[in-house]
Amino acid sequence: MEQVSTVKKRDRGTRALILPSAAMLLFISIIPLCLLVLFSFVDGNVTVGRGIDGFTIGNFVRAFSSAMVPKLLGKSFLISLIVTLICIGIGYPAAWAIAKVVKPQRRNILVMMAAVPALISQLLLIYTIMKLLQPGSVLMEPLARLGIIADTDTILYSSKAVIFILVYEYLPYMILCLYSVLEKIDDRVLEAARTLGAGNYRIFRDIILPQSFPGLFSGILIIFIPAAGSFVEPDIAGGPYGMMIGSLINTQYNTSLNMGYGAALSLILLVLMALALLVINFIMSTAERKIGGKINA
Amino acid sequence: MPKNRRKISGTRVFFTVWIILTMVFLFFPIAQIILMSFNTSVYGRLPIVFTTQWYVKLFTTSKLLGAAGFSLGFSLVVSLVSAVLGIMASLALRKFPTRLNNIFNTLMDVPLMIPWLVQAVSLLLLFSFVGIGRSIPSMFLGCLAAVMPHSFMLTYSRVMTMDPYPEEAGRTLGATPFQVFRDITFRMIFPAVLAGWLMSFVLCFNCFSLQYYLAPFGTYTLPMKIFTLIRSGSKPDMNALATIMVGITFAIILILNKIGFGADQLFGAPRRGEKE
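Predict the joint structure of the above. Result:
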């Protein structure tokens, strides 16, 4: 009897270890997000020491009646979509090559190498790409000498540069997500399909693609959401017309100082992202059903 | 049969070339910066004339070093706290029913699913509301919330899959709970803890948005310093610093690889995949 009660007491002690992280999660992750709804109705700024001036629905009226906000939202999601698609286009064959084509002993080092850019500071990556794209750089100078581009040609300070930088930043994540699922595909199944006469396309459609869906989905998730909310890249490399919705939100906090309006914009962005997620989820599950049925059901 | 073989090797060549090109795409910009850090030209122009003057400048007169030092210390503290919280939460969750575990895990995913800009905005509003505004404690809490899920994730999956019998044996033989933890549990989960700590260190060092929004005025972390310098012309000492940081990143990745963590595990790809 006593034995049982000490075990219980010990368990209770261990359970209490959850408290700091649970508190952190609640107060610094969940509650601030819920409060975002409240703050999006704030009139003007939230100032330290003075609190809130008053509440208004003006922020939403302003956002929805402005011509710029829908345009920026559309542009942000479009850029994000393009970036995601390019990452899939480059990342899928690359992940397949690492998982199934290269020698097994080289696999590990290649995966690790693919991860290096993901662990380098975002600002440094932006800096390296800017240096690469500026006229006279190691890349541009030879291209100009060969006559492929004009001396002063550059895609810097345009949406193209933003897309280039975002692809460079997020490609590693797509490769890693896809690699983790492609690597699990059984070689014997591929061999069996080939023996039974299936061509490359058939094997891809019926075996590889359905089994890679979970990785593809998490890759899209990891790229699409932050890319749509990016503000540093358009700010630095986007030029005068490169602005995205993140830039506008950022302006509300660091230049024009209208935090309430910024909160409303953030909330709109979050809601649209949730909707985009639902759409992506729907497309993926429909495709999954159409192609090969649920593998992990 | 020979025809079939030739076809396979054709695709082999395609994929081999593809992965080489992808790696070139990923590493050419980095290699270029490393090259330029040893080049005399201030504007990163060819031809290359070898010099180490930018490294000398970095360690003597550059303003970058102070920010780098601050970032280093700050990230070290945040990642250590994050690792400790991750261990505590993982051990506690073992004693909870599965349903509660799943809820906690889902909530842990929330910070991972939200753009850092939005997280930074909501935290700045909250901290301004409660009166601490932009300050070191705000920045500390914000970065901790952003990186802690990563160290938790790695430690938790190790704790849940570890063999429970060595701990049981220790207890039966009369070890105190602390002894069991120190001599058995901690040793068994150590690789995961180390990986989680290194990951949160790297992520905290790099989480620009949160630092940018929550740092007090006048305090500059390294990413913030780069952000302000990036537009003000060429900074060759930045190339030198970038080269050193790339070196450190390689070292960290080699360590993680040595203790048996694949890159795909570190970014939580399989865990997210399983949920689908």
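Residues 67-292 of chain A form a domain with the MetI-like fold fold (CATH 1.10.3720.10).
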